[in-house]
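sry for the spam today, last one i promise. struct tokens for design, 120 residues
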């Protein structure tokens, strides 16, 4: 009979501990949800993210390369409104912007590798 009483007391303790854990998990989830709603203090309100800025840079480089190719094609086809100086300037703009984008990408990759190689 004493064994049964001990088992019941252990079971009641386990149940109370379980309810406390469930309650603390609910509180933690609520706090996490509240924190998710709060703006990130490290990033000013309305500031674009790095991903947005990098995507915009890639799109700008792509547009410059397309314009350069269109001007070169028009010049090669003999379009009188396109002169060689415009073609060369557009080609240099697209080349310089592509090289700059490549350098940014290389530095981001290098920074990522440095972070990944840091001892924990």
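last one done:
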């Amino acid at each position: 009979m004493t064994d049964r009483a001990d088992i019941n007391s252990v079971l009641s303790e386990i149940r109370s501990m379980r309810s406390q854990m469930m309650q603390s998990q609910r509180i933690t989830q609520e706090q996490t949800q509240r924190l998710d709603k709060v703006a990130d203090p490290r990033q000013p309100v309305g500031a674009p993210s790095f991903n947005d800025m990098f995507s915009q840079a890639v799109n700008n480089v792509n547009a410059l390369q397309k314009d350069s190719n269109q001007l070169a094609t028009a010049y090669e086809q003999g379009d009188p409104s396109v002169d060689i100086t415009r073609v060369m300037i557009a080609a240099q703009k697209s080349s310089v912007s592509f090289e700059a984008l490549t350098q940014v990408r290389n530095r981001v990759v290098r920074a990522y590798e440095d972070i990944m190689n840091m001892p924990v």
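Residues 2-37 form the longest helix (36 residues). ok im logging off now
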